[in-house]
Amino acid sequence: xxxxxxxxxxxxxxxxxxxxxxxxxxxxxxxxxxxxxxxxxxxxxxxxxxxxxxxxxxxxxxxxxxxxxxxxxxxxxxxxxxxxxxxxxxxxxxxxxxxxxxxxxxxxxxxxxxxxxxxxxxxxxxxxxxxxxxxxxxxxxxxxxxxxxxxxxxxxxxxxxxxxxxxxxxxxxxxxxxxxxxxxxxxxxxxxxxxxxxxxxxxxxxxxxxxxxxxxxxxxxxxxxxxxxxxxxxxxxxxxxxxxxxxxxxxxxxxxxxxxxxxxxxxxxxxxxxxxxxxxxxxxxxxxxxxxxxxxxxxxxxxxxxxxxxxxxxxxxxxxxxxxxxxxxxxxxxxxxxxxxxxxxxxxxxxxxxxxxxxxxxxxxxxxxxxxxxx
Length: 375
Hints:
By secondary structure, the protein is α/β, with parallel strands linked by helices.
């Protein structure tokens, strides 16, 4: 991958043990997230519920070490002292970027993803988001053009969400993650979100729909057991949300709004884009269904406003002309065990070996740079 600027559109931190204890609002001090050392591992707890261990940050690159066994059957238990330093120390994260030849990374939480669908108390969840965003601003401040952190935003209260989005932008965060699929009565085609779309556009804060960010009550139905069907059909809920935003005219009213679909592969988008246009041109005859001006199609909004961050999807790469080559953004998923670190160059060389150089250049770096304003 020599000669191409590489930007990871999907990287992660592993939140440090004292993040919430030191930053969460005092009224939630006893219920907020904390790391507890137990007999077999260190486990995150929130509001008395055990979430996950710290294994997601302790097994970086494990799939490239066959001597440790089949990584697909890895343990989900680990100790904090085994977590890779780059998962929580900015200078070490940058060092690992350099190891992989990566210029910059768009960074999401790890434990924070679980908070989206396991914390039902709205006030507690909002406090968790606020404390994380404060820390994320600190994390990226030393290397603001290399570590681009993404805020966690709760939209149960849209006005509060607007305030936290603007506060996060002031802290230097470069994007905002919202639930991939809210409860039906709060779907993204509802007018209540207009102030939030407007604020995100005004702040130049791309929004993200990241894997595993469903909110209750959807989460209990969609993610119980996190089984194979949940993983195999993960783009479904994203399609529902993106389709609702497009067909309700969100991007027509807010042409500067950007939306990233993260860690949900990409190949499915070829059919999704085609299907939206076919519904619009052949089936939209019911009263009240939206008609766009000047012959614009749903796919036009998708291509103008939506990005897809994927890790390893060769079929998606082959379908790039249907999806939109300028809509695809590669991500390393660092430091998670199924990520590409520390062999990113080799992985990308294999995935893009037969692509025209200009397509490779766009997908591995230029598209994300444009999407997030990376110089």
